[in-house]
Every structure is written in structure tokens, then in C-alpha cells.
Amino acid sequence: MRLNHAAPLDGGGGSPSGGKDLASSPAEKKKAAEAIERHLEPDTHRDGTQARESTGAAAREFEGWLTGPALKTARKTWSEQLTTLMNRLGSEKAALRATNTLLRNTDTGIELGIRKSSALDSF
pTM of the full predicted structure? Predict the structure, then answer.
């Protein structure tokens, strides 16, 4: 986003690269959450665990060398980063699923707040 120039004459903003405006529907959010759940989380966990185990094995092989402690440190850091990434993926998945509910509830609340009563409501 650039703040040092006027908006285009057509009134649109968008990205400097000319990309589309942000568009999101409940179906797109559901699809994204499912992709995280079905692919990103299991694949990341599997690959991250494999890398952690490989690094641990290498650290044991080089235990008597200066490389051994460095690999142990790298494995610890990798483990922490993997945990952080898995937590972030879970949070993003939950946020995608909660956004639809939040927006729907907000819309319903606003509707109820501004809707006028009608004599027909009692029937």
C-alpha cells in the first residue's frame, strides 16, 4: 500500500502489481481451512519430524566432534520452530472457520438492532 499518491481515477486501490482486490467467501474460507487440515498440518508435521529425527541421528554420530553440540542446538531450534509453525497453522485454521460465524452473528445482531417491530411479528 502506498500513501504518498492519489487513488486511481477509477476509484480502485489494489496492489501495485495490478492484482485483484481481496475477495473471500465462506466457501473459500472453508476450503482454505480444509487445505490446512488435510495437507499443510499433516505434511508439515511429518516432514518436520523427519528432519528433527535426522538431525538428532547426525548429532549422535558427531557426538565427540564440535559438530555434535552444534547439531543438537540446531535440532532444538528446529523443534521449537516446528512447534510454533504447527500452532500457527492451527490458529489460522480456527480463525478461518470462526470468521464466518463471527461475521454472520454480527450481521444478525445488527439486523435485530435496527429492525422495527411490526404488528405481524406477534402472529
Answer: 0.61
